[in-house]
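Changelog-adjacent note: as of this version, every example in the card shows the full chain rather than a window. The one below runs 334 residues end to end.
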Amino acid sequence: MAGVLRVACIGMGWWSDVLADAINRSNRIEIVSCFSRSPDKREAFAKKYGCEPAPDYETILADQNIEAIINTTPNDVHLPTTRQAAQAGKHVFLDKPIANTVSEGRTITEICRKAGVVLALGYQRRRESHFRWIKSEIDAGRFGKLINAEANISRDRLGKIDLSSWRYQAAGMPGGVMLQIGIHYTDVLTYLMGPVRIVRGQFAQLVLPGDNPDVASLILEHENGALSTLNASYASASEYYLMNIYGKESTAFYDLFGGLRVLRRGETNAKSVTTAKNDTFVEELDEFAAACRGEGKPEVGGEYGTQSLAVVRAGILSAREGRKVEIAEILNND
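Full-length structure tokens:
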């Protein structure tokens, strides 16, 4: 398949299948190999996606036919697996977060830069068409001065979690629900409202078993002075998403069930906005493939991924110590 990016997937879990399904919807990427430490998982993945199961990661790294790695391994092995890939000259698409600590995020970014390989982070939520529409309106000046935002990203995980999975353990996913899914909306808030300067956080474990927070709240102070709030939960009765953006001249209201509406200054009724549903996963993967071919750069790379991680890390420290935390403190010490 001339021009198609040949990739190997590593880390066989439910998210590897989400990305592999998206690759099958793309015409720019082909899965040629896969690896997991579990023979059963890699054999099942290989059969499902028609690729060759590798007996070890080194076999993938030595295969000159493989150009890039789709990495959905646990957070705490992002650094060694990405280092090996970069040293082998292979580009990396890395599921968020970039790592569990800022220092590791920085190291991953620098390793890829020095090796001259593309590093892209999977932050698909910002690509949703309703957020793209809001961003275009903000950039066009129709929101005026941004003043406030509120967001909620909630899912029901009662009776659905596997406590043996790194995703639900404090060691593998510090910050619990906020690092696992809340980071998607800290990203969207940053994308729409601008970089974050200060974070206040509160975390709780109310419903789910284990050792990790299932409810978390952040207050974000953006560099432009605007304030945002974000609630993330695994303990609610249903899945729900909310993102309201308040500007001096316009307000945008988005929620999972009501869609997108906009209210302009002087109006009394919010008007519905229709945006075409887009395939965010294919978009980010196609952009990665293009970057690997020298066609532009990923929208979300290592430097931003590290900054994004710092927001959640600041929230964790704030909740632990009961004080506001500046992002600069995390970037200098985490």
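Structural remarks: The first helix runs from residue 14 to 25.
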